[in-house]
Amino acid sequence: MPEGPTIYLMKEDLQKFVGEKVICVSGNAEIDREELINKKLKEIRLYGKQTYLIFDKMSMRIHLLMFGSYEIDEQTKPDKSLRLGLNFKKGKALFYTCSVKMVNDDFLKTIDWEADVMSDDWNPKNAKEKLKANPKMMVCDALMDQDIFPGVGNIIKNEVLFRIGVHPESEVGNLPLKKQNDLIAEARNYSFDFLKWKRTNELKKHWQIYHKKKCPICGKEVIKKDTGKGKRSSFYCEKDQKLY
Fold first, then answer.
1. Which residues of the chain carry a pLDDT beneath 50?
2. Could you report the per-residue pLDDT of 203-222, keeping only the tens digit for each?
3. Which residues are 102's β-sheet partners?
4. Among the residues of 110-234, which ranges form H helices?
5. pTM to 2 decimal places
6. Which domains does the chain have, with CATH numbers?
7. CA 152 to chain centre
8. Residue 104, exposed/middle/buried by CB under 10 A (0-12, 13-18, 19+)?
Protein backbone atom coordinates (compact mmCIF):
# COMPACT_ATOMS: atom_id res chain seq x y z
CA MET A 1 0.00 0.00 0.00
CA PRO A 2 1.41 3.43 -0.92
CA GLU A 3 2.42 5.32 2.23
CA GLY A 4 1.97 8.99 3.05
CA PRO A 5 5.14 10.26 1.31
CA THR A 6 4.13 8.61 -1.97
CA ILE A 7 0.72 10.28 -1.74
CA TYR A 8 2.51 13.57 -1.04
CA LEU A 9 4.41 13.16 -4.32
CA MET A 10 1.16 12.41 -6.11
CA LYS A 11 -0.28 15.68 -4.81
CA GLU A 12 2.73 17.54 -6.21
CA ASP A 13 2.21 15.92 -9.61
CA LEU A 14 -1.48 16.85 -9.58
CA GLN A 15 -0.84 20.43 -8.52
CA LYS A 16 -0.62 21.70 -12.11
CA PHE A 17 -4.34 20.99 -12.53
CA VAL A 18 -5.43 23.26 -9.66
CA GLY A 19 -7.45 26.12 -11.11
CA GLU A 20 -8.34 24.08 -14.21
CA LYS A 21 -11.79 22.83 -15.23
CA VAL A 22 -12.57 19.16 -15.93
CA ILE A 23 -13.11 18.65 -19.66
CA CYS A 24 -13.75 14.90 -19.79
CA VAL A 25 -14.24 12.04 -17.29
CA SER A 26 -13.44 8.37 -17.90
CA GLY A 27 -12.96 5.17 -15.91
CA ASN A 28 -15.24 2.63 -14.22
CA ALA A 29 -15.78 4.39 -10.87
CA GLU A 30 -19.46 4.57 -9.93
CA ILE A 31 -19.84 8.33 -9.87
CA ASP A 32 -21.90 10.92 -11.72
CA ARG A 33 -19.50 11.87 -14.52
CA GLU A 34 -21.68 14.68 -15.85
CA GLU A 35 -21.60 16.35 -12.46
CA LEU A 36 -17.82 16.77 -12.76
CA ILE A 37 -17.76 18.32 -16.22
CA ASN A 38 -16.72 22.01 -16.14
CA LYS A 39 -16.06 21.84 -12.42
CA LYS A 40 -12.91 23.73 -11.38
CA LEU A 41 -10.34 21.92 -9.21
CA LYS A 42 -9.90 24.41 -6.38
CA GLU A 43 -7.58 22.56 -4.02
CA ILE A 44 -5.91 19.24 -3.23
CA ARG A 45 -5.77 18.16 0.40
CA LEU A 46 -4.23 15.08 1.99
CA TYR A 47 -5.19 13.08 5.02
CA GLY A 48 -2.72 10.26 5.43
CA LYS A 49 -3.13 7.91 2.48
CA GLN A 50 -6.26 9.67 1.23
CA THR A 51 -6.33 12.40 -1.40
CA TYR A 52 -9.17 14.90 -1.57
CA LEU A 53 -9.83 16.71 -4.85
CA ILE A 54 -11.90 19.74 -3.93
CA PHE A 55 -14.06 21.20 -6.69
CA ASP A 56 -16.79 23.83 -6.77
CA LYS A 57 -19.51 22.64 -4.37
CA MET A 58 -18.26 19.03 -4.38
CA SER A 59 -15.25 16.95 -3.44
CA MET A 60 -13.80 13.57 -4.30
CA ARG A 61 -11.82 11.17 -2.12
CA ILE A 62 -9.24 8.91 -3.76
CA HIS A 63 -7.56 6.08 -1.86
CA LEU A 64 -5.00 3.96 -3.70
CA LEU A 65 -5.68 0.99 -1.37
CA MET A 66 -3.15 -1.84 -1.53
CA PHE A 67 -2.24 -1.89 -5.21
CA GLY A 68 -3.46 1.42 -6.59
CA SER A 69 -1.39 3.75 -8.75
CA TYR A 70 -1.65 6.89 -10.83
CA GLU A 71 -0.29 8.43 -14.01
CA ILE A 72 -0.12 11.99 -15.27
CA ASP A 73 -0.81 12.73 -18.96
CA GLU A 74 0.33 9.39 -20.43
CA GLN A 75 -1.83 6.27 -20.14
CA THR A 76 0.24 3.08 -20.16
CA LYS A 77 -2.09 0.74 -18.25
CA PRO A 78 -5.17 -1.10 -19.56
CA ASP A 79 -8.56 0.59 -19.40
CA LYS A 80 -10.06 -2.16 -17.24
CA SER A 81 -7.96 -1.06 -14.27
CA LEU A 82 -8.73 2.65 -14.81
CA ARG A 83 -11.03 3.77 -12.02
CA LEU A 84 -10.95 7.45 -12.82
CA GLY A 85 -9.55 9.62 -15.58
CA LEU A 86 -9.85 13.40 -15.41
CA ASN A 87 -8.96 15.43 -18.49
CA PHE A 88 -7.96 19.06 -18.07
CA LYS A 89 -6.65 21.63 -20.54
CA LYS A 90 -3.12 21.04 -19.21
CA GLY A 91 -3.29 17.24 -19.39
CA LYS A 92 -4.93 14.35 -17.60
CA ALA A 93 -4.85 12.59 -14.24
CA LEU A 94 -5.37 8.81 -14.26
CA PHE A 95 -6.07 6.69 -11.18
CA TYR A 96 -5.95 2.89 -11.26
CA THR A 97 -7.20 0.09 -8.98
CA CYS A 98 -8.29 2.52 -6.29
CA SER A 99 -11.30 3.68 -4.31
CA VAL A 100 -13.13 6.74 -5.64
CA LYS A 101 -15.92 8.34 -3.62
CA MET A 102 -17.76 11.65 -3.73
CA VAL A 103 -17.96 13.43 -0.36
CA ASN A 104 -19.69 16.61 0.79
CA ASP A 105 -18.44 19.66 2.65
CA ASP A 106 -19.90 18.43 5.94
CA PHE A 107 -17.75 15.31 5.74
CA LEU A 108 -14.61 17.37 5.11
CA LYS A 109 -15.30 19.31 8.30
CA THR A 110 -15.10 16.10 10.35
CA ILE A 111 -11.49 15.39 9.30
CA ASP A 112 -8.73 16.12 11.80
CA TRP A 113 -6.32 17.70 9.31
CA GLU A 114 -3.79 18.34 12.12
CA ALA A 115 -3.33 14.58 12.55
CA ASP A 116 -1.58 14.00 9.20
CA VAL A 117 2.11 13.44 10.05
CA MET A 118 3.24 15.32 6.93
CA SER A 119 0.87 18.25 7.22
CA ASP A 120 2.13 21.78 7.83
CA ASP A 121 -0.58 21.92 10.49
CA TRP A 122 0.51 18.69 12.22
CA ASN A 123 -0.07 18.78 15.96
CA PRO A 124 1.98 16.19 17.91
CA LYS A 125 -0.09 16.86 21.04
CA ASN A 126 -3.08 15.23 19.35
CA ALA A 127 -1.07 12.06 18.68
CA LYS A 128 0.11 12.03 22.28
CA GLU A 129 -3.45 12.24 23.60
CA LYS A 130 -4.57 9.42 21.33
CA LEU A 131 -1.69 7.22 22.49
CA LYS A 132 -2.54 7.99 26.10
CA ALA A 133 -6.10 6.81 25.47
CA ASN A 134 -4.83 3.41 24.20
CA PRO A 135 -2.29 2.17 26.80
CA LYS A 136 -2.78 -1.52 25.95
CA MET A 137 -2.25 -1.07 22.23
CA MET A 138 0.96 -2.48 20.78
CA VAL A 139 3.20 0.17 19.26
CA CYS A 140 3.16 -1.67 15.94
CA ASP A 141 -0.63 -1.21 15.83
CA ALA A 142 -0.46 2.38 17.10
CA LEU A 143 1.86 3.48 14.29
CA MET A 144 -0.36 1.85 11.69
CA ASP A 145 -3.56 3.32 13.16
CA GLN A 146 -4.71 5.90 10.60
CA ASP A 147 -6.59 7.84 13.28
CA ILE A 148 -3.37 8.33 15.28
CA PHE A 149 -0.69 8.52 12.58
CA PRO A 150 -2.41 9.08 9.20
CA GLY A 151 0.03 8.29 6.40
CA VAL A 152 2.27 5.89 8.29
CA GLY A 153 2.59 2.48 6.63
CA ASN A 154 4.53 -0.69 7.24
CA ILE A 155 7.90 0.56 6.01
CA ILE A 156 7.74 3.66 8.20
CA LYS A 157 6.52 1.59 11.16
CA ASN A 158 9.48 -0.78 11.03
CA GLU A 159 12.10 1.88 10.46
CA VAL A 160 10.76 4.18 13.19
CA LEU A 161 10.73 1.41 15.79
CA PHE A 162 14.30 0.48 14.90
CA ARG A 163 15.41 4.11 15.08
CA ILE A 164 14.05 4.49 18.61
CA GLY A 165 15.05 1.01 19.79
CA VAL A 166 11.55 -0.25 20.63
CA HIS A 167 10.23 -3.78 20.10
CA PRO A 168 7.05 -3.76 17.93
CA GLU A 169 5.06 -5.75 20.52
CA SER A 170 5.68 -3.22 23.29
CA GLU A 171 2.52 -1.74 24.79
CA VAL A 172 2.06 2.00 24.41
CA GLY A 173 1.35 2.50 28.12
CA ASN A 174 4.61 0.80 29.10
CA LEU A 175 6.80 3.16 27.09
CA PRO A 176 8.81 5.70 29.11
CA LEU A 177 7.81 9.29 28.36
CA LYS A 178 10.97 9.86 26.30
CA LYS A 179 10.23 6.85 24.12
CA GLN A 180 6.66 8.04 23.57
CA ASN A 181 7.99 11.42 22.48
CA ASP A 182 10.56 9.72 20.25
CA LEU A 183 7.84 7.59 18.67
CA ILE A 184 5.77 10.64 17.79
CA ALA A 185 8.71 12.72 16.55
CA GLU A 186 10.24 9.97 14.41
CA ALA A 187 6.91 9.09 12.77
CA ARG A 188 7.09 12.54 11.21
CA ASN A 189 10.88 12.71 10.76
CA TYR A 190 11.09 9.39 8.95
CA SER A 191 8.13 10.28 6.73
CA PHE A 192 10.06 13.26 5.39
CA ASP A 193 13.24 11.20 5.05
CA PHE A 194 11.16 8.67 3.09
CA LEU A 195 9.95 11.52 0.85
CA LYS A 196 13.51 12.76 0.27
CA TRP A 197 14.80 9.30 -0.64
CA LYS A 198 11.74 8.52 -2.77
CA ARG A 199 12.43 11.62 -4.88
CA THR A 200 15.91 10.32 -5.74
CA ASN A 201 14.83 6.67 -6.05
CA GLU A 202 17.07 5.70 -3.12
CA LEU A 203 14.52 4.58 -0.53
CA LYS A 204 15.53 0.90 -0.34
CA LYS A 205 19.18 1.87 -0.04
CA HIS A 206 18.41 3.57 3.26
CA TRP A 207 16.38 0.78 4.87
CA GLN A 208 18.05 -0.25 8.12
CA ILE A 209 15.78 -3.05 9.33
CA TYR A 210 12.92 -3.51 6.84
CA HIS A 211 13.49 -6.78 4.91
CA LYS A 212 17.03 -7.02 6.28
CA LYS A 213 18.70 -10.26 7.36
CA LYS A 214 21.21 -8.86 9.88
CA CYS A 215 20.92 -6.02 12.38
CA PRO A 216 23.19 -3.14 11.28
CA ILE A 217 24.08 -2.43 14.93
CA CYS A 218 24.93 -5.81 16.46
CA GLY A 219 24.96 -8.14 13.45
CA LYS A 220 22.41 -10.54 14.94
CA GLU A 221 19.70 -12.11 12.82
CA VAL A 222 16.69 -9.87 12.20
CA ILE A 223 13.40 -11.40 13.36
CA LYS A 224 10.48 -11.34 10.92
CA LYS A 225 7.08 -11.82 12.53
CA ASP A 226 3.45 -10.86 11.93
CA THR A 227 2.64 -8.69 14.92
CA GLY A 228 -0.31 -6.87 16.48
CA LYS A 229 -3.99 -7.09 15.70
CA GLY A 230 -3.32 -6.23 12.09
CA LYS A 231 -0.86 -9.13 11.72
CA ARG A 232 1.41 -7.01 9.53
CA SER A 233 5.05 -7.99 9.01
CA SER A 234 7.48 -6.62 11.57
CA PHE A 235 11.26 -6.77 11.24
CA TYR A 236 13.21 -6.20 14.44
CA CYS A 237 16.31 -6.99 16.45
CA GLU A 238 15.64 -8.61 19.83
CA LYS A 239 18.92 -7.21 21.20
CA ASP A 240 18.66 -3.59 20.07
CA GLN A 241 14.90 -3.10 20.30
CA LYS A 242 13.62 -3.33 23.85
CA LEU A 243 10.28 -4.95 24.74
CA TYR A 244 8.39 -2.70 27.14
1. none
2. 999 999 999 999 999 999 99
3. 60
4. 124-132, 139-144, 154-164, 177-199
5. 0.93
6. 4-109 (3.20.190.10), 114-236 (1.10.8.50)
7. 5
8. exposed
